[in-house]
Amino acid sequence: MDQDFSTNIYLVFSAALVFYMQAGFAMLCAGAVRKKNVQNTMLKNLLDACGASIAFFAFGYAFAFGDGSNPNSFIGTTHFLLIDVDDYAFFLFQYAFSAASATIVAGTLAERCQMAAYLCYSLLLAGFVYPVIVHAIWSDHGFLSSFKANPLFDVGVVDFAGGGVVHTTGGTTALFATMILGPRRGRFHDDRGRKLDKPKDFPGHSIALQMLGTLTLWFGWYGFNAGSALTTASLHRDKLTALAAVNTTLAGGMAGLVSLFINYFYMERTTGEPVFDLSRAMNGSLSGLVAITSGCGVVEPWAAVVIGGIAGALYLFGSFFLVKRRLDDAVDAIPVHMFNGILGMICVGLFASPGKLELTYGRELPHVGWFYSWGRGSADAHLLAAQVCGVLFIVGWVLFVMMPFFIWLDWKGWFRSDPLEEIVGLDTSYHGGLILANGDDSVNPEYISQFRNKREQLRQRRRSTSTHGATYNIPPEEHSKKDMEDDSVL
Fold this sequence. Notes:
Layout: H1 3-32, H2 38-65, H3 88-108, H4 115-138, H5 163-181, H6 207-225, H7 237-271, H8 278-293, H9 301-324, H10 333-351, H11 354-361, H12 370-375, H13 382-412, H14 419-424, H15 426-431, H16 445-468, H17 476-489
């Protein structure tokens, strides 16, 4: 069988596996939110896939890999609309990655973000912010790339399957977004704005959906990590693919166990009641999968186990830290993807094996993991330094572009949903119908009545505007007054 033919077939199959992770994200997010917000959360996951397909086709791929005859080290300048692109399998694989990066943010902003704002941010991330990072680290001419003729510190940034490029980018975006958007109503403050002594938990409506989403993501991760071996210059892609799959399995398994039992002992010591928390185990496993993504093809299996163990512990610390800082993350995407994406990048600088690096690049690299250099009696930390620079660039670039964008959306009043819409549920507010759940997910009928009256007033305004041809320009301060009135009523 022709090698190019088989590579393209397997790459398209890997792209399908990565795309199938969208179903995992959708199920995980749907199970983690309250019943009144399920439809809205799932639509946002679908919008990520739809919006990323157009944005990455139109200019995202060009910014990422459009080197042309006169390339620069920061951004691509050719192949817009896939003009002069022949490798469609590679495009499809990279598109699936861009959609995954955008979808990471969906869970963090669940239950309180406006639809239009979400679509705008998704297009910006998939079409511009993410591609620039891809170009810097994965392009042949990127200023951080290990494929460049004269790479940074003679080695460049090694990110085998996107632990930094995909997961740190998405997780960092989620962090900055929730800092501006704020927590869900009632999470850290009561109805009068007073700080709660103990944050209120908002348990998801279906742990079964969360479990389905977790296992679906784990399944898709084999396309994510093992499939990335097909894009390397390795002379033994079969061995590299198998190594990446094995390391993925070991890290995910170890992280899940560590997270489960550390949380078990923590709960026993702090509350006197030991609990086997399924959600901690699920997110722990995902953390291990994220942490091994950067190094799944360049570390030994024993190192994957170590990395997974650290990832499980780091996830728990990150989750507790966010709550302490009163940052609301509905699905713990920030500790899973950002914190462990950064961990994975650093671990490459520590654990990258000389033999596995040569297997991946098809040549011997001058610098390897710091522990291996230390074992040789050297203090060579060139690769570790490059990895740190890669992390700093990713975080800095996302901060530079996305933070002002989120601030602008918030200033315009387009970012956060109306307080009344948030209380009755975004399914009712944006998708029609009426969601009346039981227990903690119940909606006070009084709020439903207020919501209906508000909607009827808006319809009457539109009819009046349409009939008389007038435009009602409401000053910003009036909007603020109305929001304050809503808050005082609710």
